[in-house]
Structure formats: structure tokens, C-alpha cells
Amino acid sequence: MRSVFNLRTMTALTIAAGSLLVATVASAAPAVPSEASSNEPARTPCGYFETEHDAKYNHCADNTHVVINVDTIWARDYTKCVGPGVTYLGSTDDIRFASYVGRTC
Predict the structure, then answer these.
(1) What residue ranges of the chain have pLDDT lower than 50?
(2) Do the Cβ atoms of 98 and 48 come closer than 8 Å?
(3) Predicted TM-score of the model (pTM)
(4) Residues 6+ away with beta carbon under 8 Å from 8
(5) What pLDDT score was predicted for residue 32?
(6) Cβ distance 72 to 95 under 8 Å?
(7) Residue 93 is inside which H or E element, if any?
(8) Percent of the chain predicted with pLDDT > 70
(9) What HEC string does 19-83 produce?
(10) Would you indicate the residue range of the signal peptide (predicted)?
(11) Are residues 83 and 60 in contact, defined by beta-carbon separation less than 8 angstroms?
């Protein structure tokens, strides 16, 4: 009799946990604005990002230059020193990713 109670209890707990997980995931979904009504310009992300056809790196600090590693598709990867602001790296057809290597230049 004890094993049946444990099985029922475990089943109920599993269902409750699953419902909680579904509710948490549903509430964590980002809200989609009905239209862009904000007067603030879109913020450029820090680090590597892509636009429609361009690969770029945004170094958000305003007083340093850093070394990034540029991961290319067709050529050998390379490092590059970038200053504050957005640096154009090339076409997204040629650039796969770029990342900070941990040192200044």
C-alpha cells in the first residue's frame, strides 16, 4: 500500500512541477510591442553584432582600446585593435564572429 501512495504522490508532484514550469516559461516570454512608439533610438549592443549584411563590433568603454579576435569564414582568423564605438569588420558573408581576447592595445 505504501508504494502505491508514493507513486501517486510522485505523479501529482511531477504534474504540479510541469505546470509550474509551463507557467514560468509562458510568463517569461518577451512582450511584443504593437508598434514602435518610443522616441529613444535603438541601443547598439556591446560586442559583436550583425546588421542585414554587415558584421560589426561595438566597444562600449569610452577610454580604452581592446584587442578582438575576428573569426572569418574564408580566410585565416585575425586579431584587431578597436577603439570606443562601432567598428565595421566586413560582410556577414565573410565574418562569422568577433570576441574580446582579454587585453588592451
Answers:
(1) 1-7, 9-40
(2) yes
(3) 0.59
(4) none
(5) 40
(6) yes
(7) none
(8) 60
(9) HHHHHHHHHCCCCCCCCCCCCCCCCCCCEEEECCCEEEEEECCCCCCEEEEEEECCCCCEEEEEC
(10) 1-28
(11) no
